Design the sequence.
């Protein structure tokens, strides 16, 4: 019995050593018992901040090598490195008001996951929120404590358990943080146009639903919704799913099994950037709502309009939607 006990202790010690090796810092080779401790160490490591890939935890030879590697890492669709892991732990809260040093409106992507509430478990309750910047860095992630009891955690798709929400940030606090961050210190009424003010451009898929469940109001002029952008829609009234758009336009699969809001944010941001890079013939006043276009089809021009061919009428017509390529104009 003593030999068996000794062998078991030896095996257990060997197993613990092997586990620590899995959680070893690539910069200083320090070992940690748990992945969470390694993540905290990485966040404060100077070497990792300068030469460490936040996606796969690799340490590169130089900052230039890091930039080259990280571009490939992002484009490969690998979203489960340190940023995604820290997001799962709910460790990110970088929602700050910009002091006006950045040029043009900043672009951020938002996604949330909902659990079920109510007696029939069909009421959507916001339970997890993620926001990233244009470089796919996580700005904000938190689990959200709904204001009413959860009756269905929808674990198969959300991965959310009761312990995630027990001490989570209350919905009202999340709402206030996100609202202030998006408006960037400006009142909502002051946000008039995509080129005016300091408010941020908000990217997402089905943002009406997400913002409603978060109880956040945001002007439609600052929203870029991949579910409502006409070039990405099936028809003028039907939307494609984010899963389909990611496969068709970006070439990789998402939302298989448990769905990660960070993964959704990255997909919508990449779709937005791709659509923004479209090259069109520039028009001085491209939108039908612009005051300069009001007289194109005015009643006093009726006789002139009747003499026009369909091609001529098409030439003076204007689109009813804001094309995202105008964001980079």
Sequence:
């Amino acid at each position: 019995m003593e030999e068996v006990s000794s062998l078991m202790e030896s095996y257990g010690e060997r197993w613990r050593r092997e586990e620590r090796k899995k959680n070893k810092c690539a910069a200083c080779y320090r070992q940690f018992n748990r992945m969470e401790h390694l993540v905290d160490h990485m966040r404060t490591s100077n070497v990792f901040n300068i030469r460490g890939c936040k996606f796969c935890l690799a340490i590169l030879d130089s900052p230039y090598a890091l930039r080259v590697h990280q571009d490939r890492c992002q484009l490969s669709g690998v979203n489960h490195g340190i940023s995604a892991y820290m997001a799962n732990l709910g460790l990110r809260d970088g929602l700050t008001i910009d002091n006006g040093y950045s040029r043009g409106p900043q672009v951020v992507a938002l996604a949330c996951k909902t659990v079920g509430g109510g007696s029939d478990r069909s009421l959507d309750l916001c339970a997890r929120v993620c926001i990233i910047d244009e470089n796919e860095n996580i700005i904000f992630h938190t689990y959200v404590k709904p204001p009413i009891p959860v009756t269905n955690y929808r674990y198969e798709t959300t991965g959310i358990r009761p312990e995630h929400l027990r001490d989570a940030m209350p919905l009202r606090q999340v709402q206030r943080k996100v609202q202030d961050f998006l408006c960037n210190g400006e009142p909502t009424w002051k946000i008039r146009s995509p080129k005016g003010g300091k408010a941020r451009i908000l990217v997402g898929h089905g943002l009406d639903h997400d913002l409603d469940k978060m109880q956040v109001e945001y002007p439609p002029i600052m929203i870029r919704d991949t579910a409502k952008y006409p070039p990405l829609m099936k028809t003028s009234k039907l939307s494609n799913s984010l899963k389909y758009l990611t496969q068709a336009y970006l070439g990789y699969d998402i939302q298989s099994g448990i769905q990660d809001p960070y993964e959704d944010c990255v997909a919508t941001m990449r779709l937005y950037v791709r659509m923004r890079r479209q090259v069109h013939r520039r028009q001085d006043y491209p939108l039908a709502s612009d005051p300069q276009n009001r007289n194109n089809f005015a009643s006093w021009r009726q006789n002139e309009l009747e003499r026009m061919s369909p091609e001529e009428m098409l030439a003076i017509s204007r689109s009813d939607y804001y094309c995202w390529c105008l964001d980079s104009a």
Q: What stands out?
A: The chain is about 40% helix and 15% strand. Residues 250 and 270 are 8 Å apart (CA to CA). The two ends are 78 Å apart (CA to CA).
